[in-house]
Amino acid sequence: MADMIPVPERMKMSQRPMPEQDPKKRTRNFDEVPLGYKKGDAIYEAQRCLQCDPPPCVGGCPAEIHIPQFIRKIVEEDFASAYLEILKTNNLPAMCGRVCPQEEQCQRVCVYNKMGKPITIGRLERFVSDWARKQDTKEKLPEIKKKRKLVAVVGSGPAGLTCAADLAKMGYDVTIFEALHKPGGVLTYGIPEFRLPKRIVESEVDKIKELGVKVVTDFVVGLTKGVDELGEEFDAIFLANGAGAPQFMHIPGENLNDVYSANEFLTRSNLMKAYKFPEFDTPIKVGKKVVVIGAGNVAMDAARTALRLGAKEVRVVYRRTKEEAPARVEEIAHAEEEGIVFDFLTLPVRILGDEKGNVTGMECIKMQLGEPDESGRRKPLPIEGSNFIMQVDMVVNAIGTTANPIVARSATSVQTNKRGYFMVDEKTRATSREGIFAGGDITRGSATVISAIGDGKKAARAIDSYLSSGGSLRKKTPT
Amino acid sequence: MPKIITKREIAPNIISLKVTAPLIAKRVKPGQFIILMTDERGERIPLTIADYDRENGWIRIVFQVVGKTTAQLSQMNEGDELFSLVGPLGNPSKISNYGTVVTVGGGTGIACVYPITRALKEAGNRVIAIIGAKTKDLIIMEEEMRKASSELLITTDDGSYVRKGFVTEVLDEVLRREEDVKKVWVIGPAPMMKAACEVTKPYQVEMIVSLNAIMVDGTGMCGSCRVTVGGETKFVCVDGPEFNGHLVDWPEFMNRLARYGRQEKLSFEPHEKSYGEKNG
Ligand SMILES: Cc1cc2nc3c(=O)[nH]c(=O)nc-3n(C[C@H](O)[C@H](O)[C@H](O)COP(=O)(O)OP(=O)(O)OC[C@H]3O[C@@H](n4cnc5c(N)ncnc54)[C@H](O)[C@@H]3O)c2cc1C
Ligand SMILES: Cc1cc2nc3c(=O)[nH]c(=O)nc-3n(C[C@H](O)[C@H](O)[C@H](O)COP(=O)(O)OP(=O)(O)OC[C@H]3O[C@@H](n4cnc5c(N)ncnc54)[C@H](O)[C@@H]3O)c2cc1C
Ligand code: SF4
Ligand code: SF4
Ligand code: FES
């Protein structure tokens, strides 16, 4: 066991940085960029934790992780116990440790944050779960009586996986229905290998299957079977189908050959492994000069993927400034280190092409910030006459996604708002139809992995109380 | 797992497979398609459901070997299992009793137009079906099409069977001779569908085409399959696959079909070699 350092000394210790792959090397491979803490790094960082009581950090974590407790186990060098402590509330720690916006969640409320050096809770979480995966640490679950109630979960992203795992631990018989041939949602098809290796997603999904959760892939709810039909076979349903439909800007030239939606570009590369073409059959194209529209996590992933696929120059255009960019600070920094060029206050107005459909350039207009709008952000306004043409031969559109109506159309009496998202009770995730619950991006628009996990947990609890009090969808006909 | 129960080469390089898929068979309607993968490293490719048996739980697909994935699929045998099969995808054809209608199938498009033709006739329409291919050997499903239609017209590009000429010429003759054709369905290679749209335009008849855009997920998630119809962007997999042919931006659509030409060759060439060796 490592020493417990006296508090005043602890407070003088600095934050342990994350070892990373050299930017020059990493743009030529798809290996993970942050390399992960070594044992010594983790223990050092854990020793800094003040073990606050009550711990403010926990309030910042939608997965309700017992943060000081697991950190203490790291100091004690009992990594297995640290892992089991995390698993009590979070079924997907290896993923959260990597992609959670920690700086806006747990770490933002850590007492050290005021001093600018919060405990790197996410990195510690990643260390512990990676250690456990290598050791094959297994959770010993108390014997529970199986409940003869069937729950269907639509979608296998973080919301669906979490809800399924929590319900399985309570003894329910859970089946996940997934449209694609592989489970994981955005974690599998969207987030690239160099941020979240797919073997890690697979291993966390496998652990959930070991809890007894059945995963049926190649099943499009709404087409293979509708929600109403599932309601005749299951006692409760959790809808977690994500907000996967790509949006376009509706500017001329958007359907030229080398204009991709980020979803297509990333799905080809991640889900279909086109970055290994022709070893894998799905093709992907990358231009010499690529421009990505948007500045969220999705845009950063698309830009960095293009670079790794061999683009000579990759630019990101965004109509607001860096301050408003929705991507994680860390991801923008990574992109900049890798040589991606940012054009802020720039709005595309037209994509130019030749008669064969090849992209030859993109016309943009410069913007300036005006008065704050309803969202409190200063509204970008075009500067008249500032149009210019950017020399590019490929465009990736990463301006966002919206609800896909396939699931909702097959669900009688489940209300959606005007943007197509399911309307739910914040606390219970209950929809307007008894026995049907919903969570994740399909209830709020594209958000974060951790908010989806939070929804999954709340829904699991609400479904348990619904079913334990005798509720069942099978007895009800939709009205 | 979806298993191949029967396999027949119904014409040179055109193969018909019956595959177990009870859930898909139960729900499918004419005009819908599936997406399959032969193996884990494979591509997701869309194929139309050419026939189905709800009771016995199978669907039939008919495809032409044109590249790596279709070649790989053609080498699978009865008893083999597909890695992945999902469906039924896309919107069903709008079947109703319209009166007199014409259905046109070119090449493997014949297989795609077959279930629509059959359903239209069952709904009470007088269905004039036109099928065509390059040469006699490539005319497929003639008997099925004859049964499914009220009148069947056949043509070959080289005149080796029934008559010489393109389906578009036969379509023009039918429209000239018939007073009151309510709707025309045309399914086949893009240039043929485009030409058919030009033929039907002067007759002001409703013209439906089924677009074979390049797809990935087939559920509206990627936008690979997008096409401009009447000035608006549509996704073939969820808004189609059937559209009013007179409103489709054909040059754009055809450009997009050729998007991966270079990569497809790269992927097929090594495979073509081994395929050639195996098939003598
Ligand atoms: C490229 C990219 C990068 C991102 N980076 C981050 C990040 O760094 N940090 C972060 O916190 N968040 C990030 N996000 C956002 C985050 O991934 C999502 O908010 C989160 O995955 C939402 O989870 P979910 O469970 O609601 O849905 P999803 O992960 O979208 O999963 C939904 C699942 O449902 C399936 N489905 C859809 N329709 C049907 C149907 N009809 N029948 C059956 N199944 C269906 C889908 O195929 C999918 O597998 C990123 C998103 C993207 C696209
Ligand atoms: C809704 C729909 C229904 C179809 N039905 C049939 C059918 O019943 N019978 C049949 O023979 N063919 C059908 N096709 C076309 C079939 O999908 C392609 O022939 C097949 O994908 C070719 O794959 P490949 O790897 O063998 O050839 P490749 O060498 O990869 O491609 C050859 C050509 O096929 C097209 N193509 C390639 N990849 C895709 C893809 N992922 N999705 C769509 N098209 C692609 C391209 O135009 C390409 O130039 C249909 C297509 C669609 C969209
Ligand atoms: S899951 Fe996210 S919010 Fe919770 S402790 Fe881990 S990194 Fe922090
Ligand atoms: S707030 Fe920070 S220091 Fe306090 S227990 Fe949480 S992680 Fe440790
Ligand atoms: S194939 Fe992906 S949206 Fe149509």
Please explain how this structure is put together:
By secondary structure, chain A is an alpha/beta fold. Chain A has 17 helices and 16 strands. In chain A, the strands form four sheets. A five-stranded parallel beta sheet of chain A has the order 3-2-1-4-16, sandwiched between helices. A five-stranded parallel beta sheet of chain A has the order 6-14-7-8-9. In chain A, strands 10, 11, 12 and 13 form a four-stranded antiparallel beta sheet that branches. In chain A, helix 6 packs across helix 8 (121-135) and helix 13 (262-269) packs across helix 14 (297-308). The radius of gyration of chain A is 23 Å and the shape is globular. The N and C termini of chain A lie far apart (61 Å). The mean pLDDT of chain A is 94. By secondary structure, chain B is an alpha/beta fold. A six-stranded mixed beta sheet of chain B has the order 10-9-8-11-12-15, with helices on both faces. A four-stranded antiparallel beta sheet of chain B has the order 1-2-6-5. In chain B, 50% of the residues are buried. In chain B, helix 4 (142-148) links the parallel strand 9 and strand 10 (151-156). Mean pLDDT of chain B is 93; it is low at 276-280. Chain A binds chain B through residues 179-181, 189, 217-220, 223-225, 244-246, 248, 250, 254-258, 260-261, 263-264, 267-268, 272-273, 277-285, 355-357, 404, 406, and chain B through 23-24, 27, 37, 41-44, 68-69, 83-89, 216-217, 219-224, 226-228, 233, 238, 249, 251-252, 255-256, 258-260, 263-264, 266-267, 270. The structure holds flavin-adenine dinucleotide (FAD) (2 copies), iron/sulfur cluster (2 copies) and FE2/S2 (inorganic) cluster (FES). Residues 99-101, 154-160, 177-180, 185-186, 190-191, 220-222, 240-242, 244, 266, 297-298, 301, 328, 404, 406-407, 440-442, 446-450, 452 of chain A line the site of one flavin-adenine dinucleotide (FAD).
